[in-house]
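Q: Can I see a sequence and its folded structure?
A: Here is a first one.
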Amino acid sequence: MTKPGPSVHRDLAWALKQQAKRTGERAPSVRGADWRLATVTAVNTDGTVDADGIEDIRCLDTYTLPAVGDVIRIDQSSSGNWLAMGVLATVSGWTTLTLAAGYTNPGHGYTASWMREGRRIWMRGRIGPTSGTIADGDTLATIPTAIRPGVAVAWGVARDAGAMPAVCRLEITAAGVLRTFQSTNLPQWVGLDGITYTI
């Protein structure tokens, strides 16, 4: 009986190594899972996104407004499936809103300001004229381009108690103009508290 030569040992060692590699690639306990940051390159009609060359990544139900350019966290399961966990929040902190000439904080409430949280904009504060009342349709401020809603949006907002109920219409036009509409009993101030929209 002859002993196997060195080449047989090498072939057997290589075959065992390949088998172990294939087994490890398929075994969740060996393969594990991973996550990373990725930039969205496409939003698909079925609700999935493409990011960093990976196609059809399913989104969590909390990631409701995916957009191209979003920096998101994606997770890969041990079986190789990808999941978009959501966009990284961009929280700006409160930024003072630049008001139009003739307008200021009326001396109570927050100073008119905005905060960005991801693609959501929050507003707070009060705006009043330096004297008199706010004229119907007058421009109170121009919203910065980066945080404009892109379409006309409007809210019923708090105002001084000169009329009952003490609310009036406040809107942001598609061009970013912040203005009020109140044809009678013109307000002495309006509140931005509670206004929120997505960009």
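Q: Show me another, different protein.
A: A second, unrelated one:
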Amino acid sequence: MPRSAFTIHTLDTAPAAARPAMAGVHRKLGHLPAAVALMAESPELLKGFLGAAAVFESTDLDPVAREVVVLTVAARNGCHLCVAMHTAILARHAGTTALIEALRAGAALPEPRLEALRRFTVAVLDHRGDVPDEELAAFLAAGWRPRHALDAVLGVGAYTISTFANRLLHAPLDPALPGPALPGDQEKVSLHRSTLTLFS
């Protein structure tokens, strides 16, 4: 359950400045996820996250690569909601079970180029952007370009906002999403192909 200090807003109770963003999400999904309703307490945070995530969707990274970045951040930051949501999104983009399970576990990916992206994303997180030369060189040697390094940083920034906010808020899972299992959890992960996504 969300923390009692925070309100799961409706379009009627939310601050006026948050309502257009909430309405946009509702139109897209057909419902308002609790995480969005909770973030609406701060219209600036909600609009900042939605805007940054939408810009990340327009980068030169393909959909699977973007989800590698997002799931790496979500698993590293322990955001069960983000892991569940982006498991569904990656499955929708034809991510393999092996790829999804590895990302959720924080393990090496089966495809070398995507593994280089995952490792680079981890290096960005671990070194707070000051990625060692050898890590950057390995990333570029795998076929990525310098702009992709910056695209990944944008993804890290956007989804650090959401993972931190969701953890602060104790945002609940949407019932249609797959289970939230992270490394160390006991439950079996269901990798059904949900069509739910905020940013398709």
